[in-house]
């Protein structure tokens, strides 16, 4: 499972709230972490993330992760906060997934 990370210029609770609101409804809240302290937005990928858009735009399987990454980046940028792209990472399998 991939983890998408973005360094976002957030200086107050209003900033982190704006980012959270922008992503709410588009991203499963259980997969979203907005850290004001670290100025970091982390989203753990899941199969339903942008599923309809991927189908509509006929995204090739090898391009799905990049599509999701860019879609999330666009949503965060629309808040007006400066965003520094960070590398995608592979998330370790959780205990539940291993069982």
Written overview of the protein:
This protein is of the alpha+beta class and 99 residues long. The protein has a single domain, classed as Alpha-Beta Plaits (2-Layer Sandwich). 35% of the residues lie in helices and 21% in strands. It contains 4 helices and 5 strands, in the order βαββααββα. Strands 1, 2, 3, 4 and 5 form a 5-stranded antiparallel beta sheet that branches. A hairpin with a 4-residue loop joins strand 2 and strand 3. It is globular, with a radius of gyration of 14 Å. The two termini are 16 Å apart. The relative contact order is 0.27. The C terminus is likely disordered.
Number of helices: 4
Shape: globular
What is the helix content?
Answer: 25-40%
Average predicted local confidence, pLDDT: 88
Total discrete domains = 1
What order do the SSEs take from the amino end to the carboxyl end, as H and E? EHEEHHEEH
Instruction: Give the name of the CATH architecture.
Output: 2-Layer Sandwich
Q: What low-confidence regions span 5 or more consecutive residues with pLDDT below 50?
A: 93-99
- Quick one: CATH class? Alpha Beta
Rg from alpha-carbon coordinates: 14 Å
Content of β-strand:
15-25%
Distance between the first and last residues' Cα: 16 Å
CATH topology: Alpha-Beta Plaits
Q: Strand count, sense and closure of the main sheet? A: 5 strands, antiparallel
Overall strand count: 5
């Amino acid at each position: 499972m991939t983890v998408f990370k973005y360094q976002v210029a957030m200086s107050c609770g209003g900033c982190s709230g704006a980012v959270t609101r922008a992503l709410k409804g588009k991203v499963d809240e259980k997969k979203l972490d907005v850290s004001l302290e670290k100025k970091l937005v982390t989203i753990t990928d899941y199969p339903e993330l942008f599923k309809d858009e991927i189908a509509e735009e006929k995204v090739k399987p090898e391009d799905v992760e990049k599509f999701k990454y860019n879609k999330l980046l666009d949503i965060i940028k629309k808040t007006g906060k400066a965003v520094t792209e960070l590398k995608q990472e592979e998330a370790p399998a959780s205990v539940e997934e291993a069982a």
